Amino acid sequence: MEQILVNGTILAANYALIALGITLIFSIMNVLNFAHGQMFMLGGLIVYYVCVVLHLPYALALIAAVVIVGLIGMLFEDVFFQRVMRISNREENTMLLAVGTSLLLENAALSLFGEKQRAIPPIVSGVYRIGNAFLPASRALVLVLSLVLIAAVLVFVNYTKTGRAMRALAQDRTATLLMGVDAKRISTLGFGLGAALAGVAGGLLISISGVNAGIGTAISTKAFIMIMIGGAGVISGSLLGAVVLGFAEAIGYALIPGSVTYLLIFVALIVFLLFRPQGIMGKPAA
Amino acid sequence: MVNASRRSVLKGAGALALATTLSTPSIVRAQEKALRIGQLGVMSGPEASWGLVNKYSALATAEMWNDKGGYEIGGTKYKIEIVSVDDRNDPKLTVSGAERLTGSENIRYFIGPNTDTTATSVRPIAEKNNAIYFPYAFARSLYTKPAENAILGMIASYQVAPIMYQQLKEQRGVKTIGFVARNDSDGLLQRDEGVKVAQTLGLEIVSSSDTYEPTITDFFPVMSNLVSLAPDLIVLSSAAPAHAPQMMRVARELGFQGLFACEAAQDIKIINEVAGEYGDGLISIGGASTPEIRSPYMEEFIARYTKVAGEWNDEAGTKAYALEILLATLAAAGPEAIDDIAPFKAAIDGFSMKNPFLKEESQLTYVGTGDFGQKRQIGVPMVITETKGGAFTTFAISSVAS
Amino acid sequence: MRYFEARGLTVDYDRVTAIKDISIGFDEGQIVALIGANGAGKTTTLRAITALSRLKAGEIWFEGEQIDRHAPAALVERGIAMVPEGRRVFPHMSIRDNLLMGAYTRKDKAGVARDLERILARFPRLEERFRQSAGTLSGGEQEMLVVGRALMAKPRLLLLDEPSLGLAPMVVRDIANLIVEINRDEGVSVILVEQNSRMALRISQYAYVLETGRIGLEGASADLLHNDHVKALYLGG
Amino acid sequence: MTLLSVEGLTRRFGGLVAVNDVSFTVSEGEILSVIGPNGAGKSTLFKLIGSFLPPSAGRVLFEGAVVSGLKPNQVARKGIVRTFQETTVFKEMTALQNVVVAHQLGVTASPLGTFFSSAAARADERRFRDSAAEILDYLGLGHVKDVEARNLPHGYLRALGIAIALAARPRLLLLDEPFAGMNPEETDRAVAMVEGIRKRGVTVLLVEHDMRAVMRISDRIVVISFGSKIAEGSPEAVRADPAVVEAYLGKDDETIGH
Amino acid sequence: MAASLDAIAGRAPERMGGVSRVLLTLLPLAAVLYGLIPVLFAGQPYWLNVMTNGAVLSFASLGVWLTFAIGRVNIAQGAFALLGGYVTALLSTLYGVSFWLCLPASALVAALVGAAIGWPLLRLRGIYFAMVTLSLTEAMRLAFLNAPGLGGGGILNIPRPAGLDTPLAFYLFAATLLLAGYLLVWRLATSRIGWVFRSMRQNEELALSIGIDVARYRVVAFAICSAMGGVAGGCFASLQQNIYPASYTVSDSINFMLYCFLGGLDFVLGPIVGTFGLVIAFELLRSIQEYQALLYGILMIVVMLFLPNGVISLFPLLVRRFGRGAS
């Protein structure tokens, strides 16, 4: 039982970073970032490269992952998304573009880093015991770092000028422009921040389980599940979605024979959406 | 990264070369007697390494022979050309790829594909177009009559399990066993076969219901369940080289003291990278090339493979056999077999050659009568390895009964 | 050169001319009204001034500086704030954050804090609900919030687009009085776009009547209020 | 004869009562207006009658049969058709296509017949095109019938919205703020249009903010404030009702700016 | 000239008579499918196979296009292809049912399941519907993987349909199927039903207000789409003679959606052009191996950036340009 709690907490914290990033991008740009999982993967591979190939410290690698993936996000937003949003007839076109960027990132990663599973040696060793549960130190570290990062993002979004501008932009673009906000810059920044969060999540996770070039779609799918549970575009909802998914997975793996866990999660999700299509925290569609 | 980038360059060069090959009319080549062998498999996406190892192995063998002026069949030396086609592990693309090799390119022999899904999709094409292929997939229907065009290039998991578990029971005193399987068709089938074997051997099965999604990112929840039952042995059914080390690391972090076993080949480099000090104690089917048993020819092959691929992959130890035995059988069947598989099929049953990859004198033949009712498997030695101090060491050597 | 001067403003939407050759000008501290029928081009004129719509022709001068090439953000920094039509509060942000968004371009933290106090003092209803999200306010309260938000930018020129739209007459009166007070107490010049012509003419000094994208009539508001043509057309008899 | 009766209609959103126990009836052939200050619950009432929202309590009867609980399209089939505020039309169709497609309730061909373009289906289409052209001409949109709706001048969109509703052959037309944002001249035209619609045999229930226009065309007026009905009667009676004046009109304008 | 181009793009002029409209719309596609392709590739089973894949995939994409027409981004077509594939596989291997009966059965089962799932789910819109259908694809895969009695495995040795044992025969069958599918969707799109779909896409509330039974039409569109997916799955199961839970995954569903997008959502021919375009492009890119997929991604972004309304949107542009040049 304690083990389920520990497992759920760790998963939830990891997932929260992923969900937070995709939510930021969605709320500000109204773009469902299909490439989110690929950005996560890239973050992991960058950490691998810096740590294992360049033999530099993990902290540095993590910073590199944040910066590079963040810059890639900003670049995509600036070069691709703004153009497509300007010229296309339909809103859905950004979705296709996002799929295109995900293919691009995945194959670029495949060419650069190869197809193999990559991981880095454990940063810390040892195992804590909490009651009957095990908590390996490396996982505890990731948990703590995740929580710190989540808190930092929440503080940034809620209490800084730029964060406020991001939230404002998500709610009313014209009014935000009239406040003197450079909406283009904030959008780019928001996309970059969302991407960077995916990157840092990947960079953290590689230290405990490794990544390979092909995991992107699976991560994106999980991110989608979380924002469907919590409500798209709502930050508190994405965190809640992460907690729900994390614990559902932990409980499922522990209690359900066979691996119908994910099948059940999907079925539950579909049924849930029938009753509450906007997710738990989402605002009802007008 | 040095490796990776060099490999990219090599890949680029290979791609260019191949592009020229494909766009150049075949008349030009016909003058210098070429023998074209196909290779069809997954070479992109998460499973890319399976097909790529086939490709690099074939290229390495081909280059070694071409350097010597070609392979001699019926008194003529043939330059060997490898024509590779990526199927992305998508049956639709495998089918069109096989059609391309055996139809458009008129190739009678090809290596691959790499999974049950793709291999069974290829079967009708190969039979229609009269081609022999060497899948790396375990589906029995491919090798049992009425099918007779497929030759299993490696040892199937269900052939490994009885021997592996028996040895573990006898040598390491394994009494309790737990299974965790990859949740896809291959994984579940392998687990079910493994469970049967364990029952026959009288081992106590503590758990056989744990599975994980191939897309998993964290094995902690999966493994914590199994580790708490503390079996002597954890079998990782159909664990990909990417996943096995993660599972080991998690289990060790959770305090697991026992052994691991896997009927699929693993990659020692990934094990070292991912599992590090936790990588010891994995019993798996090896690449038939542990240092203790390999011949100088194998050393040469390894060197050549490393040049082609950028880094050595232990899986290639098994996959080296396909082209070598294919060529030798062709030589035995005579030049007419190049364009007609009937003589080749006829030659299979009586074929025998000295195993070039092993230090000790032993014969390499086709086997499989026991499992498939006909000789449709390469008699690759079954080398069971154990990871120790960051390297594969030989745990047991056996073979598939003819 | 007057305090504010726009000359020959022309804007096209999808190759259809929305406004053509509109010129307006006034002195510091004035309230100027733009009135006219729906679709006459009032909102487009405001959007052109705040650079939300692209000018096809024309130039705009404010405090002796040409401003028609600036981005919306730069205009806010130069002291021009606009309250858009339909009370566009940030519904999921608190009153406080809404007001702070108004001060986005300002660097003087102490000044911002002071102004926040001042504006809350002016709008006690907002202070009561300081931490609530703006979406929970009534229409009139939201109008106060957006005016307060615009004031947080410390503007010298305030553009108001249809502040009375959809408000009950009682509330319209409050808003009208508020505009007059702000103009008087803070010395802010105002361009007021209104459907409610009577109200607009009553509180402004000068007015322009827009008809299908052009200026049809202009003059002192008091005169227009009694002009028979205007009366017949826009004041509803 | 009573066409529509609203009985004790109530709608709560969380703790807020948007419509509180409202009852009134609409007789065949009359123009009835529901007015009230902004936020009084007019729009919610409107959605309740059109079945776009389920009521928390009370019911709506049309020709004596309960219609609350039906889906909006079923209510439309019974003959209650609404318009929308602002510019709700099919933006990527021409004006004519907008109105032709709105004849859906008049389809006589079977779905299969429609698919295979049977004689009945072709006759339907011919009929719809003629009828649509007639409606557009009637509402003064004849000359823009082939213009895509998104390119139509703003002023035409509201008329197109009404044209779409008329195509569904309503017995009772619900007009949602038909005069909002119009200048006196435009309002005059719109008032004439609504009266014309009544002459076509359509009963009209309109919700409006603009008192002046309403006073001119309504046979009766229902006034609601804070969700509750506070007055009902002829325009003159309502105008004289002190409760209405206080809740709705407030005090005299002359205090502005002084 | 312009009229026939419009017809090619699936937008035959409305004033034309019924039969000639049908012919004008079908002929160009029929000419390519029955004339050009067999002549070009008759002796090349490989290319015939690629074309067969293209035709059957186009058929499934046409279904997805139909859900775009009602304003839903559908990422569930892989699920229905999988379902249809299993229906055909089970019926033909367990009961020896003929392929020609299996296919309608696949269509029927897929349509029924589609209708049952679609009825409630279609209330969702926008990205919510997209995400939930994506989940549906994954759920379907997991359901077959964990289905009792299937042993987590695939079904092998599905008999090849009698009479379709040469690549050319199967191709011609696939081409006919595609042509039929095209006719179906084109008729739906250009008849009153299509206008009803369009009205729902543009404004569901308004459509409701004029008496359109939006919920029913949505379900009908989705069920037809699912049926087409089921048929495609059944075809591939017979063509490849096997089906596995992993035969159709999320990426297949995404591909079906992409084909529609890239071809152009405003044209019935869009999904066909998009599918063939990408399938052929992928095969042509084979010669550059590992960079194949990378270039594929870049290609897609380039199309998106410069032809955001699909490849077919190029046609009217070209016509305008050359038309102007000529006159």
UniProtKB/TrEMBL annotation, chain B:
PROSITE patterns: TAT. GO terms for biological process: amino acid transport. This is Branched-chain amino acid transport system substrate-binding protein. Belongs to the leucine-binding protein family. It comes from Prosthecomicrobium pneumaticum. The keyword Transport applies. Signal peptide: none annotated. SUPFAM superfamilies: Periplasmic binding protein-like I. Keywords: Amino-acid transport, Signal, Transport.
Automatic annotation (TrEMBL), chain C:
The keyword ATP-binding applies. CDD domains: ABC_TM1139_LivF_branched. One of its GO terms (molecular function) is ATP hydrolysis activity. The keyword ATP-binding applies. InterPro entries: AAA+_ATPase, ABC_transporter-like_ATP-bd, BCAA_Transport_ATP-bd_LivF, P-loop_NTPase. Keywords: Amino-acid transport, ATP-binding, Nucleotide-binding, Transport. PROSITE patterns: ABC_TRANSPORTER_2 (PS50893). Residues 4-237 form the ABC transporter domain. GO terms for biological process: L-amino acid transport. It comes from the Bacteria. Belongs to the ABC transporter superfamily. PANTHER family: HIGH-AFFINITY BRANCHED-CHAIN AMINO ACID TRANSPORT ATP-BINDING PROTEIN LIVF. This is Branched-chain amino acid transport system ATP-binding protein. It comes from Prosthecomicrobium pneumaticum. The lineage of its organism: Bacteria, Pseudomonadati, Pseudomonadota, Alphaproteobacteria, Hyphomicrobiales.
From TrEMBL, chain D:
The keyword ATP-binding applies. One of its GO terms (molecular function) is L-isoleucine transmembrane transporter activity. InterPro entries: AAA+_ATPase (IPR003593), ABC_AA/LPS_Transport (IPR051120), ABC_transporter-like_ATP-bd (IPR003439), BCA_ABC_TP_C (IPR032823), P-loop_NTPase (IPR027417). One of its GO terms (cellular component) is plasma membrane. GO terms for biological process: D-alanine transmembrane transport; L-alanine transport; L-isoleucine import across plasma membrane; L-valine import across plasma membrane. Pfam families: ABC_tran (PF00005), BCA_ABC_TP_C (PF12399). Residues 4-251 form the ABC transporter domain. Gene3D superfamilies: P-loop containing nucleotide triphosphate hydrolases. This is Branched-chain amino acid transport system ATP-binding protein. It comes from Prosthecomicrobium pneumaticum.
TrEMBL record, chain E:
One of its GO terms (cellular component) is plasma membrane. Pfam families: BPD_transp_2. InterPro entries: ABC_transp_permease, LivM-like. It is found in: Cell membrane. Signal peptide: none annotated. Its main location: membrane. It is a multi-pass membrane protein. Keywords: Cell membrane, Membrane, Transmembrane, Transmembrane helix. GO terms for molecular function: branched-chain amino acid transmembrane transporter activity. It comes from the Bacteria. The chain crosses the membrane at residues 21-41, 47-68, 80-97, 103-122, 168-189, 219-244, 256-282, 294-319. This is Branched-chain amino acid transport system permease protein.
